[in-house]
Each structure stands twice: as C-alpha cells, then as structure tokens.
Amino acid sequence: MRRSFVFKPIKTKPIKTTTMKSIRTIAFALLLVSSATFADAQNVKLSGTILAPTGDSVFLQYSNRTATAFETIVLASAALKKDGSFAMSAKLDSGRSVMFFDGREVASLFLVPGDQMTMTLHTSYFDETIRFYSADGSAARNNAQCALFLADEMNNASIASVSEKMDTTALFELIDKNSEKLVGAVADHKVLFPEMKTTFEGLEKQFASSAERLKANIVSKRQFDKLKDELVGKKLLEITGIDLNGEELALSSFKGKTTVVDFWATWCGPCKAEMPSLKKLEEQYGDKVNFVSIGTWCKEDEWKEMATDLGFKHNMYVSKEEADQLKQYMLVSIPRYMVIDKDLNVKSIDAPRPSSGELEKLF
Predict the structure, then answer these.
(1) Could you tell me the sign of the dihedral formed by the alpha carbons of 90, 92, 95, 96, in that order?
(2) Is the domain of 172 the same as that of 198?
(3) Pick from 342, 356, 243: which is nearest to 293 by CA?
C-alpha cells in the first residue's frame, strides 16, 4: 500500500485517517466559511437517516492543506437520534465541495446556498446505498457525483478480480478502457451540471491519472510478491538503528530466538491500533520470541517518548537519513511485520497483523 496521511483537525477532535477514498475526496474539497447558526438564504440544510450507524454523530467537513499535513475542519455536525435520523445546517456563500462523514466513511457532496436535501444510507453498503432526495436539483447532482465515485470503485474491483490472472499488457489495456469510459461519463455530467464544472474537471484529471497509478501499483505488487518468495529461507538483510539509550543496534543481534519485527511510526493510526495485540503476544510468547519494535519515518524524540510508553522490551529507531536500508524489503507502507527464525533466516517479510490471530502460527 502506501504510507498513511495524517489528518490534524482543528476546532474539533480527530475524525478519520486516510484511505484511498479519503485521499480522493480531499483532492476535491475546497475551503468553506465557518459553521454558523441558521441564516436564511445562505444556509444549506441536510437531514436523513443512517441505517446501522457506526457512530453517534455525522459531520459536514472540509480539508485545508498545510505545508505538512491535511487539517480536517468540521463545518457542521449533528447527533444521531435512536432511529438513526439527523438534521443539520451550514452556512455557505457559494457552491462548494464538502465531505459528509458518518464516523467511518466519507462521501463527497457539492452544496449550493439554499440547498435542502434529505438522504439515506446503510453503512454495510455505504457507497451502494447512499441516496439523496430534494425538490430542487441538489439531489440529482449529488446522486450523480456519488454514482461516478461508485463507478470508479467498481472499475478498481473488476481489475482486482483479474489482476492475478492476466499479463500486464492485457491488464493495462483493460485499465485504459475503463478509464476512458469513466472520464467520458464525467465529461457528460459536466454538461448536465454546469455549476459543478470545476469539480468535474478535477474528477476528469483524477480518474485519468488514477489509471497510471493503478498500473504502477500492479507492477510494484508483482515485484513485491516476487521478493517475498525469493527471501524466504534466505539470510536476514541487515537493518541497523539505535535503541532507546541512543546506542547502535543491529537486527542481527537477536540471533538465537525467533524474532518478530514491527515497523511503525508515531503518526500511523493502524500501527497504533495493532499495538495492544502485539503487546499481548509479547506477554504470552516473550520467553521464546523476540519482539522488535522499529520506529521509522517519524521524529526521534516523538518515537522515544511513545516507544517508552508502549513498553516493548526491544526497541529500534531508524532515522530518515538511514531509511534507505528499508528499501531492500520494499517497505513503502506501515504497519508491516516480519518474522525471522533463530538462525536469522527469513520466514516472512509480510507477516499477518497481530490482531489477525495468524501471526503466532509463524513462531
């Protein structure tokens, strides 16, 4: 996959870590004015019902990109009632793209001052079931936009279903064909909804460029799958860093026991979500297995503080300047787990996550 993005909300609690959908939606989110109480003609109103809700509130939000991260700012929010219904209002001065967030997933909306819409969705099939209703054109434009995003996901799903079976030439031709159809559909919608011209022009560029990224990801995955097979049973490719005392530490120093390696960073939400499960494994198997927690792609002082709090027995930090050594394992996303046997032979460079219940089978 890819290195996680960091969302640092202001004026509210953190909302959501990035996913492909999050990244795509943020790319088209424009700056909005601050949330306000009802103000007649400048208000948009959104109400609806969430079936099988995953949270207790819903949000309208936008993203502001800074030099170092995306800031997610809540424009309006509403608590869900027991039946999953809600109602909220936000003040706009012009037509803008915003994100609707239900606590776990997001949908991109285009709102114009004066819009009044209702919506429904079932969280088990978020993209497939989201629907908007209105007496004006606001529902039509938002249903159309959601349908285009769903079409993009369906294209990606169709590629995923055949990517292991087809050679790259045929696969890339299918990707180009899907992309051409989708970009053409966006162009048609641009004519149908002229108020969204800028948004749809952005989607045309996004969907066209995503085809090239998909091809690159397929090539990278096939290279990684080959590397995974090649390294099994081979000697460890050395990694060095420093420990909590600032002393040099080499991964090869853990010879004599099976070693589980966890690559993580202080800013990585999925990494931190796995820590309790990894800690339980260390408590259960720590007498015969080394658990080596390797922090990278983050600041040393922040790593040291968090690593100390986490309390793993073995800790290593790989600085940004030394991170090139991780390329030998094609480490481009985290968390990643590796298992090395007692003789420093590789058992897996892409082991299951601790929470899966499968990692311990490699001990």
Answers:
(1) negative
(2) yes
(3) 243
Report yes or no: 178 and 158 within 8 Å, Cβ to Cβ. yes
Distance CA 148, CA 155 (A): 11
| Residue 129 shares a structural domain with residue 141 | no
Alpha carbons within 13 angstroms on the beta-carbon side of residue 149 total 24
Same domain, 274 and 191: no
pLDDT tens per residue, range 209-225:
999 999 999 999 999 99
Cis peptide before 335 (omega within 30 of 0): yes
Q: What is the distance between the alpha carbons of residues 229 and 319, in angstroms, rounded to a whole number?
A: 28
Q: Per-residue confidence at 17, pLDDT binned at 50, 70, 90?
A: very low
Q: What's the CATH number where 80 sits?
A: 2.60.40.1120
Q: Are residues 205 and 294 in the same domain?
A: no
Reduced to 3 DSSP states, what percent helix, strand and coil does the chain have, rounded to the nearest 5? 40, 25, 30
- 70 and 95 co-located in one domain: yes
To the question of pTM greater than 0.70 for the whole model, the response is no
Backbone torsion region of residue 285, taken as left when φ is above 0, otherwise alpha when ψ lies between -120 and 50, otherwise beta: alpha
| Per-residue pLDDT tens over the stretch 125-168 | 999 999 999 998 899 999 999 999 999 999 999 998 998 889 99
Rounded Cα–Cα distance for residues 347 and 338 (Å): 8
Residue 142 and residue 121 share a domain: no
State the amino acid at position 206 in one-letter form: Q
User: Where residue 336 sits, what CATH number does that domain have?
Assistant: 3.40.30.10
Closest CA to 86 of 49, 115, 61: 49
Query: Which residues constitute the domain of residue 178?
Result: 137-231
| Angle of CA points 194, 109, 134, to nearest 5° | 80
Secondary structure class of 45 (helix, strand, coil):
strand
Residue 60: both structure tokens together: 């309208």
